[in-house]
């Protein structure tokens, strides 16, 4: 006969290693583990484990079921494991919400935050800002950082597609649980819109939406948060600066001189918002064809030009963090919902993006554009 308390103890130990895919914490810490029973039957010992889902329509119920079953597979003396998915009671849900929000400020990304925040800006659309953002986030996540991403590009929300997410966020007790893809917690304005309708939101609505992403989304403890801003210097960029005061700007440009001038203007937004500029990323730079020919579709030098103009305007060094070549692999992976950093890490684009990740990881928070809190002595 199997010792029931031994089996139960072993099962609990193993279940402590099962991480909830949305909350990114062990299910045993979240009150998701219900009854664990061991019964001797004709076919042998049956272990029955009750798992309480946060909400009935939990989109990840299949994943949770499979993770629990895999964790309990091969337990000594157990002939069969039954995973019984139930739903938390309103009281259990309220207790979980309290546990998750206890001691956290309403805005977890205020001045005191330990999260490093990058707001990714570009002068104009189509320069690859979202592709770069998704890949940088994936690159950091692959290095073990805890990463969040807010897609605030209202008119061109492309991040869910780039990361292969079509799942809606789960709502629990007024909290929004963001889907997780490639290790990135992701929320997009596109997840809350009817995508067939053109978006005609005005500034205050956009501000409110972004505010909700900051305050109502359960982000947990993030090392890094990326925000994909709409192109240009519009309302959202100002709102992002207000809601996420420690954010640093990353400016994406193509090598084209005309694009660089516009990108430099977007970077100078930092003087208005007092955000530092972490650096410039040039995208769609020259690519080398298999026969050795160099194709510089968008010219060259734009990234360097933006870096110099911002260095001059902000009176502090703003470096060119990297130059990402035109690369059909980057485009194809984006269309397939796979960050190239993960799918083709040796491709020319991924190699350049990895250098940007290294540069950002190794430099501390920048001060360019930030007014220092000093007052003249008497
Ligand atoms: N280095 C690159 N090589 C090849 N294709 C690229 C590269 N960077 C981006 N692309 C492609 O260019 C297109 C535009 O990219 P993306 O949507 O990231 O731009 P964006 O600046 O975010 O645009 P918007 O702000 O208008 O949404 C996409 O099809 C993307 O796959």
UniProtKB/TrEMBL annotation:
Keyword Magnesium part of the UniProt annotation: no
Signal peptide (UniProt feature, chain positions): none
CDD domains: Mrp_NBP35 (cd02037)
RNA-binding keyword on record: no
Keywords: ATP-binding, Hydrolase, Iron, Iron-sulfur, Metal-binding, Nucleotide-binding
Pfam families associated with the record: FeS_assembly_P (PF01883), ParA (PF10609)
Amino-acid positions noted as binding ATP in the UniProt annotation, renumbered to this chain: 123-130
Domain MIP18 family-like, chain residue ranges per copy: 9-83
Task performed by this protein: Binds and transfers iron-sulfur (Fe-S) clusters to target apoproteins. Can hydrolyze ATP.
Known partners and oligomeric status: Homodimer.
Similarity comment text for this entry: Belongs to the Mrp/NBP35 ATP-binding proteins family.
Protein name: Iron-sulfur cluster carrier protein
Taxonomic classification: Bacteria, Bacillati, Actinomycetota, Actinomycetes, Micrococcales
